[in-house]
Design a protein that fits this description.
- The chain has one domain.
- 41% of the residues lie in helices and 27% in strands.
- The protein is built from 7 helices and 6 strands.
């Protein structure tokens, strides 16, 4: 399984993992702080936010992720109370990785990222139907809560706005396809 297809399965499995999600958006550009674009941004039923970064290759994890500002700044970023209160720092942070790179990735994550980072592994499992597979997520390491601030009303409105804009764009795209 390659790139985009794998990413979609990882995303679906991560969604299943967070079944207490109250609000969920993929490819969420927070536009606040250094967090950048989250592959999956979740507001859970307790009002806490969770960011999931999906890594489909070792290169993606070891090179591309390590270059992000939030890791370069380290504790100055993650422990900044003002950033936490403004929801620039998520309450929980996870990496979601495919089973094929799990062994090396888990070691790398444990050695190079803070201990609050959770790890979710998605594995391909053959079903009882011949040749059909499904993807299951398992938690290898639970994320520790970084802070206890609830998601602000400002952030919630931003997420709802992004979702509504995507819905509008999707409806426009469907309309374009029908008229062509």
């Amino acid at each position: 399984m390659e790139g985009k297809e794998l990413l979609l399965h990882l995303l679906e499995s991560a969604v299943v993992k967070f079944n207490n999600a109250q609000l969920l958006i993929s490819e969420y550009d927070s536009m606040l702080g250094m967090s950048g674009r989250a592959d999956l941004y979740i507001i859970d039923s307790n009002g806490r936010d969770r960011e999931v970064e999906i890594k489909v290759s070792m290169h993606d994890l070891t090179k591309l992720e390590m270059e992000k500002e939030k890791w370069k700044w380290g504790e100055q970023y993650w422990n900044n109370k003002a950033y936490q209160k403004e929801n620039r720092v998520p309450a929980y942070f996870y990496f979601c990785i495919p089973d094929e790179i799990a062994e090396k990735s888990i070691v790398f994550i444990k050695e190079n990222f803070p201990s609050f980072v959770g790890i979710i592994v998605v594995e391909k499992v053959e079903t009882s139907i011949f040749g059909v597979f499904e993807y299951k997520a398992r938690s290898v390491r639970s994320a520790r809560r970084i802070h206890d601030y609830e998601v602000s009303e400002k952030r919630r409105r931003h997420v709802y706005k992004m979702l509504s804009l995507r819905w509008k764009d999707l409806k426009i795209e469907k309309l374009k396809v029908r008229t062509q």
